[in-house]
Amino acid sequence: MEVEPGEGSSSAAPGLWQPLSARLGGQAIDQTWQEGIPAWINRAVRDWLSMQLHDMTVRDRLFARLHYHDIGDGWGYSPPVDTLSEADLLNWIDGVLHIQAARSVGRIARHQVDDLEVILRDGNSIWKVADSSDALERRQDATVTAAAHNASQTARSIGRLASAAAGSSPGRARWARWRSRTSGVLGVISSATFARSRNS
């Protein structure tokens, strides 16, 4: 499920940057919010968590809270974050943020939180660090996410149908029929974007 970032929203990707090749007319990178931890930031997010878990106090408190005991002899200084499911990964990060927010003071803690938020935002994850810095939260609620996903899919269909319409009379007829059936959906795009920018 994807959610289109709205320009001007605090949840929008910064500047909606696109690679040079895209700016020169090539294929643009999909800028919609992605559920979970997208594959392209999976390594960076796990590395961030690993660094936090090198602090023995953070690690011990997290494991106590999660009742985690499957450590084994090979634990050492290499936390087993590579084997975590996505759900567990999110739980661990959420727990670490809560622990760090309670014990950390000053720029070091803020810098660590900012590093994670930048990775999540640049990677278009639906998850973000809460303004309180002590938890993860969704950038949108599930209803807005679903509506914006449908709107995004509709926008892609518009492009395909417009291309077909330019090429033939039957294509123009399909385009006209499609526009009459989906005029209400186009309103969802602006409504979902407006609601997202107000609630993010």
Protein model, in words:
The radius of gyration is 21 Å and the shape is elongated. The chain has two domains: 2-34 and 141-199, no CATH class; 39-138, no CATH class. A two-stranded antiparallel sheet has the order 1-2. A two-stranded antiparallel sheet has the order 3-4. A hairpin with a 6-residue loop joins strand 3 (127-129) and strand 4 (136-138). The protein has helices at 20-23, 39-53, 56-66, 86-103, 107-122, 142-167, 169-199, and strands spanning 2-3, 33-34, 127-129, 136-138. With 200 residues, the protein is mainly alpha-helical. The protein contains seven helices and four strands. 60% of the residues lie in helices and 5% in strands.
List the helices and strands and how they pair.
Layout: E1 2-3, H1 20-23, E2 33-34, H2 39-53, H3 56-66, H4 86-103, H5 107-122, E3 127-129, E4 136-138, H6 142-167, H7 169-199
Antiparallel strand pairs: 1-2, 3-4
